[in-house]
Amino acid sequence: MKHVSFISRIIDLIAPRQCPVCDNRLGPYEEVICASCNMRLPRTEFFRDPVDNEMARLFWGRIPIERAAAWLRFEPHSEVARLVYAMKYGHHPDIGETVGELMVQELGTYKYHDDRTEEAFTFFEGIDAIIPIPLTSKRKRQRGYNQSETIAQGISNKTGIPILKDVVRRTSFHESQTQKDWWERKANVQNVFHLMSPEKVDGRHILLVDDIVTTGATIISCASELKKAGNVRFSVLTIGYTKV
Prior knowledge:
This protein is of the alpha/beta class.
């Protein structure tokens, strides 16, 4: 159990923390999400087979994908949506970092069997670096932070895998993907990423981190740009997965 300092207890009394899902007060040992909400948030179970699952298939034949998983199933106006919206638009970067740590706790210890190599591995095994999907500079200034970077920080905290933030840049943001179909999403993110430091990813296994995957168009666009560096392999991890 996490140690809670006396100062933290005093701060909780003065400014009680609230669960972004249910708005109830968090207990002293609860981090970001209350235990009740955490238990009932809908898991995807993709971590049980990160090589062959509904989300991983989005990337087959499009990028050199090693494994892919999302922690939760995302639906608009759901409890998961409340969590993600609080992280992105509620000025709570701490939510992303803590969720990143929670994902490592749930996914990081499970052993998978790879039929291709007949070896067992954990989700984070063999990954050389993390790249959070970048925002444009303007959008990051407006929001105050990149939510994908906060998630990546939580993952790095628990795994020790370094984060690379200066390898690929997002050059433009056309408009939100939310109401678009597969083809519109693909067109909306074509040619919006620019590779800056190819030498940092050449020959490496990169974990791409984002908040939500729907069609995979943003991930594919970013990975396609990173592929120009050379022999780059990818894994993908997100908070949520949803269908169009």
